[in-house]
Amino acid sequence: MHEMSIAMAVVDQVEQATAPGAGRVESVHLEVGQLAGVVADSLRFCFDLVCAGTVLEGAELVTDTVPARARCTDCGTGWQVGSPPDLCCPACDGSRTELLSGRELRIRSVRWADEPVLADQEG
Ligand SMILES: [Zn+2]
């Protein structure tokens, strides 16, 4: 269960990115590679736990799955490897392949609740 440590890292990063007075966090978009080995449901569950008592409390975690793609270094063919990954080139049957994507695990965007417009009350 490494989802908990991922959730903690995400919350930590968002907290650091939150400017003082920015208000609470509404949602966090996360790119999760197909081969990152992360169960989105578990991650959301852990995220909710870690968020409690922080500026992220109640924030929604949105995960975007990044399909795993590989490229054959022999013939240059690219394909979606799927999960479990098929790393054999479908064109030439070669096995010298390069994984182009699928291991992503990064915050794509964070949305903060709109700050209330402060009325000018002095004067
Ligand atoms: Zn090939």
From TrEMBL:
Keyword Iron-sulfur: no
Domain of life assignment: Bacteria
InterPro entries: HypA/HybF
Entry keyword set: Metal-binding, Nickel, Zinc
Residues that hold Zn(2+) according to the record: 72, 75, 89, 92
Annotated signal peptide: none
Coiled coil stretches, renumbered: none
UniProt entry tagged with the keyword Zinc: yes
Residues holding Ni(2+): 2
PANTHER family, per database record: HYDROGENASE MATURATION FACTOR HYPA
Role of this protein: Involved in the maturation of [NiFe] hydrogenases. Required for nickel insertion into the metal center of the hydrogenase.
Cited NCBIfam families: hypA
Family: Belongs to the HypA/HybF family.
Protein's name according to its UniProt entry: Hydrogenase maturation factor HypA
Source organism per UniProt: Kitasatospora paranensis
